[in-house]
């Protein structure tokens, strides 16, 4: 497990209110919430170079076990939090419950979804990106306001994370169970692709300096291992883990290694640019690692935890041919088709894609080419809406029925806020779409909008 904390008595100051010197931080892990049966302890040094953050990698604990932990620095003691170890790789758990979430604009809504999520008795949480937003202070109609201009420097990124992490509902959810995190674009810059900004006229050197600042702040504020310590504008983020033989999780990075979006990142039909073998979402090294991981997996469920929608969903617009988002996987159609074809040819067991980014709920059946509905279904995709981004949502859009009829791969669609709760057994996967009726005011009501089920060996979706 990785335990994380950061020393910041004045979190909204650029240096967190800390002196420019290292500080010793003691940590304890116990088998009970009262911290009476301590089983591991140690000291880490919080340095100013890493924003006085602490990342503790605790080893030699019992597998598949809940633990509690706390930190002490000087006379200050942290709250007690709960985490767990994963089952042994060759074990066969009979159940796993986790949630996944993304897109939590502080300005556009309250984190009511996390209040409900904390009651779900989850084993894990996956956060699929847009943990923060880089934008400048919004208008006075927002529910909360960012501090200052669009962030650029390391100090500004640190302050933005501190502002987001000051939310008590988010803090409470972090203290309930382990989180697996990846980023999307807003942890750095909207719709960026590798070292390319969506804005023209940006100096490439300045852009990489800003990327280095963003990546370092991400590492400082997330429970990541030493293998992810950034080296300038580069950070190793894609990785995998298993929950025994029940599930294999591959956490992807679809921003750092991708090619520039085709068609200047404007919606378009699937064209020659998207079909080019040279256009990549993952980059060659990550793509080869993913394929090797899928071949080697012993998991009943093989899960890709990633950012942007994989289903080839076209938006209807009268008699004009449907267009597709070039920032999502349809903009990288060749690589997408190649990956799904690989899953078919190598008989990858029960591939499931988890997605964020788009501020909507979707349940999709994935084919090598989703425009050919008569071809076999290869995998399943669950897309989770935002925690708060885009403010109060709506259940259905005006053209909801036409959207589904024009895209047979879609089996559920909804535009409210919330998260997705998943329950896995060796036989079935159930995804509960948990929605919030209102996020622009505290105290919104959270309900289960629908549940979608897939059976092991059959990627077709059905309602519970």
Structure characteristics:
single chain; 464 residues; alpha+beta; Immunoglobulin-like; 7-stranded mixed β-sheet
How are the elements arranged and paired?
Blueprint: E1 2-6, E2 23-30, E3 38-46, E4 53-57, E5 66-73, E6 76-77, E7 81-84, E8 96-101, H1 112-117, E9 124-127, H2 154-165, H3 168-174, E10 179-181, H4 204-220, E11 239-243, E12 247-251, H5 284-296, E13 301-305, E14 315-317, E15 320-323, H6 333-345, E16 351-355, E17 361-366, E18 379-383, H7 400-406, E19 410-414, E20 417-424, E21 428-436, E22 446-455, E23 458-463
Helix pairs in contact: 2-4
How many domains? The number is: 2
Number of strands: 23
Assigned CATH class of the largest domain: Alpha Beta
| Contiguous uncertain segments of 5+ residues | none
Polypeptide structure, described:
The chain is 16% helix and 28% strand. It is built from seven helices and 23 strands. It folds into two domains: 85 residues, Immunoglobulin-like; 375 residues, Purple Acid Phosphatase, chain A, domain 2, CATH 3.60.21. Strand 8, helix 1 and strand 9 form a beta-alpha-beta unit. It has 464 residues and is α+β, with helices and mostly antiparallel strands. Helix 2 runs parallel beside helix 4.
Please provide a brief summary of the model:
The chain is of the alpha+beta class and about 475 residues long. The chain has seven helices and 23 strands. It folds into two domains: about 80 residues, Immunoglobulin-like, CATH 2.60.40; about 375 residues, Purple Acid Phosphatase, chain A, domain 2 (4-Layer Sandwich), CATH 3.60.21.70.
């Amino acid at each position: 497990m990785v335990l994380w904390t950061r020393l910041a008595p004045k979190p909204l100051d650029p240096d967190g209110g800390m002196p420019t010197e290292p500080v010793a931080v003691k940590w304890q892990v116990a088998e009970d919430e009262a911290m009476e049966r301590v089983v591991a302890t140690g000291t880490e040094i919080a340095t100013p170079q890493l924003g006085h953050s602490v990342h503790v990698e605790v080893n030699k604990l019992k597998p598949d076990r809940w633990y509690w932990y706390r930190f002490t620095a000087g006379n200050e003691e942290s709250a007690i939090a709960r985490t767990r170890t994963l089952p042994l790789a060759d074990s066969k758990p009979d159940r796993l419950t986790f949630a996944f979430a993304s897109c939590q604009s502080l300005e556009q809504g309250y984190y009511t979804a996390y209040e409900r999520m904390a009651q779900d008795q989850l084993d894990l949480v996956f956060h699929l990106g847009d943990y923060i937003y880089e934008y400048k202070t919004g208008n006075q109609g927002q529910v909360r306001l960012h501090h200052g201009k669009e962030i650029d420097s390391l100090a500004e990124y640190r302050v933005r994370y501190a502002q987001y992490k000051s939310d008590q509902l988010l803090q409470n959810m972090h203290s309930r169970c382990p989180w697996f995190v990846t980023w999307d674009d807003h942890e750095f810059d909207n719709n960026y692709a590798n070292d390319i900004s969506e804005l023209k006229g940006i100096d490439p050197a300045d852009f990489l300096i800003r990327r280095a600042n963003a990546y370092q702040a991400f590492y400082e504020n997330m429970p990541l291992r030493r293998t992810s310590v950034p080296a300038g504008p580069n950070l190793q983020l894609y990785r995998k883990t298993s929950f025994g033989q029940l599930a294999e999780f591959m956490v992807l990075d679809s921003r750092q290694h991708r090619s520039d979006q085709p068609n200047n990142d404007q919606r378009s039909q699937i064209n020659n640019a998207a079909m080019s073998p040279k256009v990549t979402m993952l980059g060659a090294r990550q793509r080869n690692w993913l394929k090797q991981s899928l071949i080697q997996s012993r998991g009943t469920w093989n899960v890709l935890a990633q950012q942007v929608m994989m289903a080839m969903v076209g938006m209807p617009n009268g008699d004009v041919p449907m267009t597709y988002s070039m920032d999502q996987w349809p903009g990288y159609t060749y690589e997408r088709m190649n990956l799904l074809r690989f899953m078919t040819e190598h008989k990858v067991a029960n591939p499931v894609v988890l997605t964020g980014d788009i501020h909507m709920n979707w349940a999709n059946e994935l084919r090598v080419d989703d425009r050919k509905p008569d071809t076999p279904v290869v995998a399943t995709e669950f897309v989770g809406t935002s925690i708060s981004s885009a403010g109060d949502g709506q259940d259905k859009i005006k053209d909801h029925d036409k959207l589904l009829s024009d895209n047979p791969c879609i089996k559920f669609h909804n535009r409210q806020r919330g998260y997705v709760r998943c329950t896995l057994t060796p036989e079935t996967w159930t995804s509960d779409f948990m929605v919030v009726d209102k996020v622009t005011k505290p105290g919104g009501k959270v309900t289960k909008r629908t549940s979608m089920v897939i059976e092991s060996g059959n990627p077709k979706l059905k309602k519970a």
